[in-house]
Amino acid sequence: MVYDLRRHQRVTLPRTFVMKIPGKKTQYSRIENISEGGICFDCNFDLCLQKNQTLHIDLYCCDDGSLLEKLPIEVLSTYEHAPENMQMPVPKLVTGARFLDLNEKQKRVLYRYIKYQAM
Fold first, then answer.
1. pTM, whole model, 2 decimals?
2. Where are the domains of the chain?
3. CATH architecture, range 17-118
4. Sign of the CA dihedral 49, 4, 107, 114?
């Protein structure tokens, strides 16, 4: 069972926002939703993120080219999800994470992304 631990309003960003996960092999993920406190995203099975793992991610907006770099996150949960409305569902991993110690600039840009979409 997945518990909702976020205190802030979740917002669905347009599909033009992507998340980059740096590593040995850089991966890109779709953002399911985001709030001032955390992010939910899907990723490939070959990217095995563990609970309590910390890493830095980048958010990129393809519409205007804005980039929010090196956001520190801590993975809180990962679960497999297969869409129910497909004849042959392709499972994906859905990961929930919280933001850790964002600097003031990161907070301002993140807030702008979220408030723009919440309107």
1. 0.83
2. 17-118
3. Beta Barrel (2.40)
4. positive
Q: Quote the DSSP letter at residue 38.
A: E
Q: If you count them, how many residues does the chain have?
A: 119
- 49: tokens are 């993120």
Q: Is 14 helix (H, G, I), strand (E, B) or coil?
A: coil
Q: What are phi and psi of 70, to 5 degrees?
A: 55, 50
82 contacts 90 by C-beta, under 8 angstroms: yes
Per-residue pLDDT tens for 38-69?
Answer: 999 988 766 778 899 999 999 998 888 888 99
* Ramachandran category for residue 70: left, alpha or beta (phi over 0 → left; psi -120 to 50 → alpha): left
pLDDT digits (tens, 9 = 90+) for 65-93: 888 999 999 999 988 876 666 665 667 88
- The answer to whether residues 61 and 16 touch, using CB atoms and an 8 Å cutoff, is yes
